[in-house]
Design a protein that fits this description.
The protein has 7 helices and 7 strands, in the order ββαββαβββααααα. By secondary structure, it is α+β, with helices and mostly antiparallel strands. The chain has 2 domains: 5-101, PAS domain (Beta-Lactamase); 111-175, Orthogonal Bundle (Arc Repressor Mutant, subunit A). Helix 4 packs across helix 6 (148-162) and helix 5 packs across helix 6. The chain is elongated, with a radius of gyration of 19 Å. The chain starts with a strand and ends in an 8-residue tail after the last helix. The model has no long low-confidence stretch (mean pLDDT 86).
Length: 183
């Protein structure tokens, strides 16, 4: 289960079939998305209209595959918009999946846990945590007082240890520990 993304499963009629805990929290807060008689709605009329368009495109008539889509959902200032992705699933009774990402949600990855579980050095675990929090190699170098070359070397070494090739896969791996601790 991804603790960083709100997942909402919808039936053909836009009614909510299931959702994870983060989605329930977002729907309860109701500043961008809410549930109206079991139906997923966006708070702002323009966003609700765009959400309807995305859902119609994801669920075309006559058994077509449908087209995934995405949008930004505005929230009251000064909050950043939510990122929303709509995709057809074809698993009765679930017709579509709506994934919602909140850029303001801070991650909670324990670098000590990464050190122990992934066998990373403490420096590697710190850099991995900063990368997963949205840091760039240059920004991490400035923040930690290391050279850019040293940060890049640590990233390459972590990728080799974990058997992955791309930095984005390293970030995904680290984010899979979001919210976990050994206590």
């Amino acid at each position: 289960m991804n603790k960083g993304v709100a997942i909402i499963h919808l039936a053909l009629d836009r009614s909510i079939v299931a959702s994870n805990d983060l989605a329930l929290k977002l729907l309860r807060e109701g500043d961008a998305l809410f549930e109206d008689d079991g139906v997923l709605r966006a708070r702002r009329p323009a966003d609700d209209s765009r959400l309807s368009q995305l859902l119609r495109a994801a669920l075309p008539a006559f058994g077509d595959l449908g087209k995934p889509g995405s949008m930004a959902l505005k929230r009251p200032s000064p909050s950043l918009p939510l990122g929303l992705l709509v995709r057809r699933l074809n698993k009765e009774p679930i017709a579509t999946m709506v994934a919602v990402a909140d850029p303001e949600r801070s991650i909670a990855v324990d670098s000590d846990l990464l050190h122990r579980v992934l066998n990373l050095t403490r420096s590697e675990a710190e850099i991995a945590t900063l990368l997963a929090a949205g840091g760039t190699p240059r920004g991490i170098a400035e923040y930690t007082g290391r050279s850019l070359e040293t940060v890049r070397w640590h990233i390459k070494r972590m990728q080799k240890k974990l058997g992955i090739r791309r930095q984005v896969d390293l970030v995904r791996c680290v984010l899979s520990f979001d919210g976990f601790s050994e206590t």
